[in-house]
TrEMBL record:
The protein's name in its UniProt record: Bacterial bifunctional deaminase-reductase C-terminal domain-containing protein
Gene Ontology process terms (BP): riboflavin biosynthetic process
Species: Dyadobacter helix
TM region positions: none
Gene3D superfamilies: Dihydrofolate Reductase, subunit A
Any one Gene Ontology molecular-function term assigned to this protein's record: 5-amino-6-(5-phosphoribosylamino)uracil reductase activity
InterPro entries membership: DHFR-like_dom_sf, RibDG_C, Riboflavin_Biosynth_HTPR
Domain Bacterial bifunctional deaminase-reductase C-terminal: 2-180
Source organism superkingdom: Bacteria
């Protein structure tokens, strides 16, 4: 069965964005881009909430064509074009969207159906509201967290309204030179 893995930058105090969705505190560099690029190349499905999907869609389809595009932009743009996109949204329709599925209801049934299909990891990128919905239905199988060396004090938390404890097993860590620490967890039964 395929696994749903939440990929998220997080502050030391557990926030994924500032109070107004700010992400200007997130540290990324070529070392992180290279590491992430290798890992996501194994995934063939990206899951987003509507807001994150629209943000990604406004940039990645043409990022490789921009003057001065970085190696990361070129590689990620190619990956983004090929990967199947799943969007959790009650307002969007998939009419006219390429390689994209919209899930607007029956979240648990629809995600479990995708998990039964052949393929690699289903990567949830950012999308805190979508992640919260997936938590409520116990649909996340692992967390790929990039802990940034900052305490925000307030913002949008990664974990909210958790009904039952979620036991995790740490499978790897990595320290990046910019101060970010990767924590890679899987859920325990």
């Amino acid at each position: 069965m395929r696994k749903v893995i939440s990929f998220m930058h997080i502050s030391l105090d557990g926030f994924v964005a500032g109070p107004n969705g700010e992400m200007d505190w997130i540290k990324v560099d070529e070392e992180i881009f290279d590491h992430v690029g290798k890992r996501i190349s194994k995934g063939d499905t990206a899951l987003y909430g509507r807001v994150t999907y629209q943000m990604m869609e406004s940039y990645w389809p043409t990022a490789a064509d921009q003057p001065g595009a970085s190696r990361h932009d070129i590689e990620h743009s190619k990956w983004y074009a090929q990967v199947h996109k799943v969007v959790l949204s009650k307002t969007m329709t998939d009419a006219g969207l390429t390689n994209t599925t919209i899930i607007s209801d029956n979240l648990s049934d629809n995600i479990n159906e995708i998990k039964q299909q052949p393929g690699g990891e289903i990567l949830v990128f950012g999308s805190p509201k979508a992640t919260h919905s997936l938590h409520q239905h116990n649909l996340i199988d692992g967390y790929w967290l990039f802990v940034n060396p900052i305490i925000l004090g307030q913002g949008i938390p990664l974990f909210t309204d958790i009904k039952d404890k979620i036991k995790l097993k740490l499978i790897s860590t990595r320290q990046f030179t910019c101060g970010v620490t990767e924590l890679n967890y899987i859920t325990c039964e």
